[in-house]
Amino acid sequence: MAIESGDRFYSPLVKNMAKEEGIAQNELDGIKGTGKDGRLTKDDLLAYIKTRGNAPASAPVAASPAAKPAASKPAPEKKAAPMSLNAGDEIIEMDRMRKLIADHMVNSVRTSPHVTSYVEADMTNIVLWRNKIKDQFLKKEGQKITFTPIILEAIAKAIKDFPMINISVDGTNIIKKKDINLGMAAALPSGNLIVPVIKQADNLNLIGITRAVNDLGKRAKDNKLSPDEIAGGTFTFTNVGSFGNVMGAPIINQPQVAIMSAGIIQKKPAVIETPTGDVIGIRHKMFISLSYDHRVVDGMLGGSFLRRVGDYLENFDLNREIW
What we know:
Helix 1 (12-21) runs antiparallel to helix 4 and helix 6 packs across helix 8 (299-314). The chain is of the alpha+beta class and 323 residues long. The chain has two domains: 1-53, Dihydrolipoamide Transferase, CATH 4.10.320; 114-314, Chloramphenicol Acetyltransferase, CATH 3.30.559. The chain has eight helices and 13 strands. Helix content is 33%, strand content 21%.
């Protein structure tokens, strides 16, 4: 539900974030919005907060003379259950970024009914191909190639096949995104997470995606990302396998409607079909999962999209040339 201020509307998440940051209403009205009809989005506010103090906001939007505050009785504040403390317990106050992340996650769960689907993908061809070319890639490109850009390439291909995964919801309207802007969760030095965005990822080849992944990941660790580089994402990927996790069920990054997670790649015995019969062999397997907004993405779309990503990974050309 949007909150009105004069002629402008704000989501509850944006209002809560502004309150946490001590941003007054007239200052909030002066921040340029990139949402529909100039609406201020969460990404707009995050970008403003990051640069706040370096430059003043634009002139506040004048309130309409006819606009009057709604006469409504404030809802009673819900009190949290008392927390018990024991000797030796340490109280650590959340920093600003952690408070924003907490609000964002809680709002996402309140907004979207989450459903998660899982697929186990055979990554053997990709593992063998990467082992074959990684030294040459490092020598030619001056950087490493990881599994992340290969997975992101498969995601971009699958989104082109299933464009209704690449959407946002605005009230009862579905906003179908033209660009495929892939966010990738990255760790900040503080331990908090940030999601830099690879813009128009479907227009990049594998080398281009690899360069973007390495560059954004490094500058995230160095805390040198610009506001524009964390805004505008249409789909998010997180690699829980980098922590040794088998699989995950991530929370949707609003206002997107889906987020994909990849687990660790493990060697497993598997049944392999051959012209002369089935045999047992060692394969490299990885779980991928998709959490999606069940208001607009049903099981058929979510499951089919995830399966398509798995198919692109499993059918990777072992003899692929990238130069």
